[in-house]
Amino acid sequence: MIDHWTMRSVKGAAAALVCAVAVGSAVAQQTPSSNGANPPPVVHCYDPERETVTLQLVGKCQGRIVSEEEAERIKARRVERVQRVLQPPTANVPPNHKLTGVGTGFFVAMDGKLLTNEHVVSGCAVVTIDTTIGSKITAEVVATDVVHDLALLHAQIAAPSIAVFHDAANIQVGRPITLIGYPNQGLTPIVPLSTNGSLLGFDLKSPELSGFVLKADVRRGNSGGPVLDADGLVIGVIHSKVDTVKIYEITKKFVENVGFAVSNLMILRFLDTYQVKYQTGVSGDALTDEQIVALARLYVVRVGCWK
Predict the structure, then answer these.
(1) Does residue 190 sit in the same domain as residue 161?
(2) Integer CA distances (angstroms), 163 to 59, 91, 250, in order
(3) Between 20 and 30 A from 221 (CA), which of 22, 50, 132, 142?
């Protein structure tokens, strides 16, 4: 989404800029073997979760190998879906407006209230949401908290499901977490994707210690998405990541895949202020990654900023 810049300290001395999300993509290349032998065959590898087809060495394909003809059909289908995303969903979006950014949000109440980052909707003429059940609708920005980077939205739609927040604010170092959202991987994501990580501790630079630091591959588009614990409960909202280049320029230390999130301590206070009827739960039996993703995808949405 929109670059969100803040200042962070490094080892108590140097300061570095932090951006909301960094765009990254990897391109696989085939090189011939040095001994002149024939290289392994390259195949069209289909990833159904991301709805993408890439060229991979036959032994490296983690998805399904498809023919060239099927690969072209999948690519055409993806282009069509992306083009639909880029089109205004209703007459509420003026025809001269364009989609300028994509972030993540999630339903927190059955009456259509959603949570995302303030920087995701800042300056937007119109905000839209896309649900995983096919709804595409405009949403109203009800309230924002610039200090803690939170925004409450309301869409005129019944939520297909809502997130359940952990009722405690304790942060345990090393605890596994899962991010669900729309991270940009060179193309506009069509479906929400999951990213695994772990908690590193409290963010000592956040207001009122209301944030925490995590180890995960946070990218542009993850902003505003939920951070889930092993029980599938929301413990925070992702909002930014370390700018690896800036930190290296200042400290000569290479730090990557470190993100920052707002914790429930501030999130629930924010929702209480606006009388949102959210749901909380307590830890129980840990869920599998597949179960966590299946539950979260029902309430996670793509948030679009139109200008």
Answers:
(1) yes
(2) 39, 30, 39
(3) 142
Summarize pLDDT for 84-132 with one digit per residue, the tens. 555 555 546 777 888 899 999 999 999 999 999 999 999 999 999 999 9
Give the CATH number of the domain where residue 162 resides: 2.40.10.120
239 touches 133 (CB < 8 A):
no
Options 119, 148, 166, 239, the catalytic residue:
119
Please state whether the predicted TM-score (pTM) of the whole model is above 0.85. Answer: no
Q: Is the pLDDT of residue 230 over 50?
A: yes
How far is residue 72 from each of residues 23, 53, 66, 86, 197, measured CA to CA in Å?
Answer: 25, 9, 10, 21, 34
Catalytic residue among 194, 210, 223, 263: 223
Query: pLDDT tens-digit profile of 1-23?
Result: 434 433 343 333 333 333 333 32
Structure tokens at 164: 């359940």
The tally of domains found in the chain comes to 2
Tell whether 306 is covered by a domain.
yes
**The tokens 């950014």 sit on which residue?**
101
Q: Are residues 76 and 185 in the same domain?
A: no
